[in-house]
Amino acid sequence: MKHLSLENEVEQSSIENNSILRETDIINLPGVGPTIAKMFYEVGLRTISSIATIPINELASLGNLGEKTADKIISAAREKLGYGFVTADQILEVRRRMLRITSGSNALDDLLGGGIESGSITEIYGEFRTGKTQIAHQLCVTSQLPIAYGGFNSEDSDPISCVYIDTEGTFRPERIVDMVKRYNEIIDVKSVLKHIFHGRAYTSDHQMVLAENILQNPCFNTIKLVIVDSLIAHFRAEYIGRGTLADRQQKLNQHLHSLLRLAEITGVAIIITNQVHSQPDAFFGDPTMPVGGHILAHTSHTRIYLRKSKGERRIARIVDSSLLPESEVVFQINKDGITDVL
Ligand SMILES: Nc1ncnc2c1ncn2[C@@H]1O[C@H](COP(=O)(O)OP(=O)(O)OP(=O)(O)O)[C@@H](O)[C@H]1O
Ligand SMILES: [Mg+2]
Fold this sequence. Notes:
Blueprint: H1 23-27, H2 34-42, H3 48-52, H4 56-63, H5 67-81, H6 88-97, E1 100-101, H7 106-111, E2 116-117, E3 121-126, H8 132-142, E4 161-166, H9 173-180, H10 189-194, E5 196-200, H11 204-212, E6 223-229, H12 233-238, H13 245-266, E7 269-274, E8 276-278, E9 288-290, H14 293-299, E10 302-308, E11 313-319, E12 328-334, E13 337-339
Parallel strand pairs: 3-7, 3-10, 4-5, 4-6, 6-7
Antiparallel strand pairs: 1-2, 8-9, 10-11, 11-12, 12-13
The site of adenosine-5'-triphosphate has 13 residues, from helix 8 and strand 12.
């Protein structure tokens, strides 16, 4: 097993860098008394950053406040955090501290610049049976490894948790059991299972509510990985025909932005899986495209395109990354999970 060489300071969780403050700190904001602070807490606005980054109309409707009051509270939160410009070296320092989760395959980790990045959205798309759900299961396991092995756990803090929003009913705890076997000297299967919160989403609205409620989960502080598998299936099934496209995209945009805010505020890693469609009018290259249009293309920080190869082998390609070069690697899906080609 590859021992990821991470710097010591990396052990500081990204949550610590994200100003997770207590309820009392929210009370100190001008315009926020104990009643409003309690209400914010109940709807999941438990940090100054979550208030600083929420749109005015959303805070107004969540808190039953006038827009003027909401604006005043948001401005005070921003001032408290010093939102404005920061220098590039500060950003680099924060990015260096962001942890990455190993995918189980060294080749795939290298392609991703060291693994799945925390604090951002990674989209995995491809045809059916290309391994999207298998990678999602694998990350629920590997994220629970100690930091030195490519996970998020450390002896100094409570065990981390994962959230799995399952829109297609394809989550299988048996696969988690299979995948833990490979790491059984390091992690305990019972503990791994206990730290995965599975939410079966029956409609797109239900899926959105599950995602929005993550901040209200009592274990919110320990959640480091959120998976939505698949992001688009319900939206595709519910909004049929050209006439509904604008409504669908608007809802999808809202959903993606709540996920994006979650990633940026809390530093969790977010994985979304996506389906593909064929573009018959493409003259060059592969006509297979991810669904979801521009909205999804603009929101995902890293896009991984999966294709089938011989037998258990799969090809992963990085697409549209602002950081990584477009290239591809081969990995394999086995009984015990995602591995390099054996
Ligand atoms: N127990 C197992 N042992 C070995 N390989 C497995 C096992 N379970 C699943 N697989 C492999 O994973 C593939 C299915 O992958 P997965 O369910 O991740 O597809 P997907 O990309 O999520 O597809 P869909 O678009 O239909 O959701 C199977 O075709 C098989 O190759
Ligand atoms: Mg799947």
